[in-house]
Amino acid sequence: MSQIAVEDIYDHLGEEKLQQLIAAFYQGVKTDEILKPMYPADDFEGAEYRLKEFLVYRLGGPQRYLDERRHPALRMRHAPFAINQIARDRWMELMKRAMDQTELPADLRQTLEAFFDQMATFLINRAD
Ligand code: HEM
């Protein structure tokens, strides 16, 4: 199976599919006992929008995220949330479930999963 670069995913996937993926992910977050309390109860839509716009930019689409939020600084922006191995694994589990539901082509899925996997590990900021 040929490899696809992270920066080429947006062109292959398109914005609508990406939107579907993030919507499916947040459906999972909304009922998750570990993750739900971390997200702003009164601004779930905003959280969904910020992650979607970040991914549009990071996966090679329009750079609107940078105009609105400047440098992603994701380690810093996640510092207020206690992300241990368990929270990280749950985030990945929900994202994998969302990817299953969105039925991504296998090569895109492989690249995207590896990207999320690395990023999620990078964002761990607490011991268990
Ligand atoms: C490891 C487990 C993770 C947890 C528990 C977590 C949790 C959170 C929470 C609670 C927020 C605040 C929601 C808001 O925007 O109001 C947030 C924001 C965000 N997260 Fe995560 N996250 C995780 C992993 C990731 C990963 C892997 C990525 C990227 C691939 C990511 C990208 C983002 C982005 C882009 C934002 C918005 C940043 C901004 O303010 O512009 N997160 N995350």
UniProtKB/TrEMBL annotation:
Assigned keywords, A-Z: Heme, Iron, Metal-binding, Transport
Molecular function GO labels: heme binding; metal ion binding; oxygen binding; oxygen carrier activity
Gene3D superfamilies membership: Globins
Cross-referenced InterPro entries: GlbO/GLB3-like, Globin-like_sf, Globin/Proto, Hemoglobin_trunc
Keyword DNA damage set for record: no
Family: Belongs to the truncated hemoglobin family. Group II subfamily.
PANTHER family reported for this sequence: TWO-ON-TWO HEMOGLOBIN-3 (PTHR47366)
Name the record gives this protein: Group 2 truncated hemoglobin GlbO
Species of the source: Gimesia fumaroli
Species classification: Bacteria, Pseudomonadati, Planctomycetota, Planctomycetia, Planctomycetales
